[in-house]
Amino acid sequence: MSASVIVCDGCCCGRVEKGHNKVPINDIVQLWNESELGDNVKLTISGCLGPCSMHNVSLLKTEKEQIWLGKLSEKEHYEALVEWAIEVSQSSDEVELPEVLLPHRFVRNIV
Known about the structure:
- The chain is of the alpha+beta class.
- The protein has a single domain (about 5-105), classed as Glutaredoxin.
- About 25% of the residues lie in helices and about 20% in strands.
- The protein is built from 2 helices and 5 strands, in the order βαβββαβ.
- Strands 2-1-3-4-5 form a 5-stranded mixed sheet.
- A hairpin with a 4-residue loop joins strand 3 and strand 4 (about 65-70).
- The termini are far apart.
């Protein structure tokens, strides 16, 4: 399965000086490496993904869908991204979004 997790660390995401929670990049990368996901699910720490009004945005991509998440503020949110990636790497079926992330899902309207 071709899947990826893209975590925004751009102009607004993770910027505590703008009132947003820090994006724990080092923790995410460490969990990713410990889970040996590198060959199965790609992790990208990107610049601005937009929309900035959602801040702390991440995008989960599979061959079948794109899942946009915003306003991620807790360490458990980022741990859930890794949990999702582990499940995707071990399954050929569709993987459910972890419950803790459900309230953070949004539809990205590109104009």
